[in-house]
Amino acid sequence: MPLAVAGIDPGTTTAVAVIDLKGNLLLLRSMKHPKRAALARMILDVGRPVIVAGDVSRPPALLEKTASSLSARLFFPEQSMTRAEKLRVAEKYSKEVSRKLSAGHGPAAIRQKLWKNKHERDALACAVRAWRRVRHVIDKAYESGAPDSVVEKMLLCVFLEGRSIEECRKRYV
């Protein structure tokens, strides 16, 4: 099961986006009034979250409890993301994914939005923003030349124990 970043947009309609540490979208879904256990199970079905991310500077209890129950680090911005920022982040990511998918298929490839509603867009923006914030650490771990299983241990050490990549590299390489 891949290590992942989960973005959650809580509310009457709650959405969750999960991307792996290489930036691949694993899950994007919205639902009405989900129970926290069902939300956690949905995330765990596709990946092992090391980060649970939100879009507001004061994370709601659902995010805090979900991160805690998944033993993941909680990520939230210093300033709440604006609607325009969430749209910009989600659209940029959507274009990047479309480029990957259309590679080799010529100009006839159709670009589609990845999300069905604003809740999914916001959850996606949360996950992508958190992933981009820590991507340099992820890249550094993969550049170490260690096997993927060791890289995963290093990244768990970094994100869950709060240690530096250098400390974790010394421990596992």
CATH fold title: Nucleotidyltransferase, domain 5
- Main beta sheet, described? 5 strands, mixed
| Portion in strands | 15-25%
Q: How many β strands by DSSP?
A: 5
CATH structural class: Alpha Beta
Strand order of the largest sheet: 3-2-1-4-5
- Helix fraction bin: 40-55%
* Number of separate helices: 6
Q: Provide the CATH architecture.
A: 2-Layer Sandwich
- For the terminal residues, how far apart are their CA atoms? 21 Å
Please give the domain count: 1
- Rg over C-alpha atoms, rounded to the nearest angstrom: 16 Å
Q: Any low-confidence stretches, pLDDT <50, length ≥5? A: none
Q: Given the helix and strand composition, which structural class is it?
A: alpha/beta
From the spread of the alpha carbons, the general shape counts as: globular
By CATH's scheme, which homologous superfamily applies?
Answer: YqgF/RNase H-like domain
Q: Calculate the mean pLDDT score and round it.
A: 91
Order of helices and strands: EEEHEHEHHHH
